[in-house]
Amino acid sequence: MKLFQQLHIKFLIIPLVAVGSLLAVTFCTIFGITYTSTINELNDSIEVEANTINVSHEPNSGGRNLIIYITVADDGSSSYKSYYAYEDKSKIDAIAASLTKEQAFLKIDSSRYLYKLGDKKSTEEGMVYGYAIINCTEQFKTITTLGFTLLVVYLVSLVIIAGLSFILATSATKPVKEAFEKERDLVANASHELKTPLTIARTNIELLSSNQNSTIKENQKWIDSAKYQIDRMNSLILQMLELSKMERDDYKVEKTNQNISSLIEGILLSFEAACYENNIRFVSDLQSNIYYECNKIETEKLITILIDNAIKYTPKNGEISVSLAKTLKMISIKVTNTGEGIPQEKINRIFDRFYKLDASHKESGNSFGLGLSIAKLIANSMNGDVICYSELGKFTTFEIQLPLH
């Protein structure tokens, strides 16, 4: 979808630009400080060397840097003398020919030099200029190497940041996309579920309108049919509102210390008649006096949903068993029914909203495939969970796990 593609791109570009800019400023600052420091050190060094020059006599022996005296005659011709020359003659010639300012950097082939005028004096031969020259090739190599290293590190960092940004953008947009898709599916499924009862109710009302001379008794079946469909729509809307309420971040219920054992016993009594009518054997194995901090209404609703679901999918002459047990770590409530079972590939989907395992149950009563979704949310609100495991052709078990710590 274009919206999520744009959101993904923004999550990718924003951190890349922000961190990339920060790194660029940091690396440029490091390079700038290093470059300025190196140039200042060279300027200080050349200043010291230039101050020792006196063109009235030759430099003292033992000097480490190149010194050149250039004599410019009145006719414009020039000649030079070099001292402490550790460079070859061709480079010295090129350096001497380039000494035109009081101070400057020179580049001769692959070497770099800094020169400064130290002293000058008029003589019979002409004007004599004394220059101090420092070979700063190594310093510039160091600066160049640093710049290249910072550039490589910067580019590698950008690649790493881009990769991390892509991962983070994918992670950040995934829940948003999933939530959007869930809401879209909810609207589509709710519309589908409402379409049939609305159509039937509308048809019944049109039949009543077309025969205005008939009595209410004569049209009772159409009225009952319309009422039934309206009740189904009302049930769906109430379940959807309940799901929406429970999914809110601020959803809270009052919890008290409840006797889970007694609570389940009461629920089982209300289902005995339904099991008897369907020739279903109903057994229970409940540990007594098990207490848990929970909301009574929500807990009853959770267990009722699972037992009601078991009755729907248990064949005649089948069996439903309910157990309650307490361990050191949790309270376990299991609802098991015999029957066809659930394929493994569908177990992960049975808690999805509007998902129905068996299409034959699609229009049965007020079942819309929301019960297990509500049960899951109730268990999660109790810091627990509902898990399902099944074996095809044998049984299906839903287990409520409530942690004690």
Can you tell me about this structure?
By secondary structure, the chain is an alpha+beta fold. 52% of the residues lie in helices and 21% in strands. It has eight helices and twelve strands. It has helices at 2-51, 89-98, 137-210, 220-246, 260-277, 296-312, 344-347, 371-381; strands at residues 66-72, 78-83, 103-108, 111-122, 127-135, 256-259, 281-286, 291-294, 319-326, 330-338, 385-391, 395-403. A hairpin with a 2-residue loop joins strand 3 and strand 4 (111-122). Helix 1 (2-51) packs antiparallel against helix 3, helix 5 runs parallel beside helix 6 and helix 6 (296-312) runs antiparallel to helix 8. The longest helix has 74 residues, at 137-210. The protein starts with a helix and ends with a strand. Mean pLDDT is 83; it is low at 360-364.
- Low-pLDDT segments: 360-364
Helix and strand content put the structural class at alpha+beta
Summed up, the helix count is: 8
Helix percentage range: 40-55%
Large-scale geometry: rod-shaped
Mean pLDDT score: 83
- Major sheet: 5 strands, antiparallel
Order of helices and strands: HEEHEEEHHEHEEHEEHHEE
Euclidean distance between termini CA atoms: 43 Å
Task: Give, in spatial order, the strands making up the sheet with the most strands.
Answer: 2-1-5-4-3
- Beta-strand portion reads 15-25%
Record field, number of beta strands: 12
Radius of gyration: 45 Å
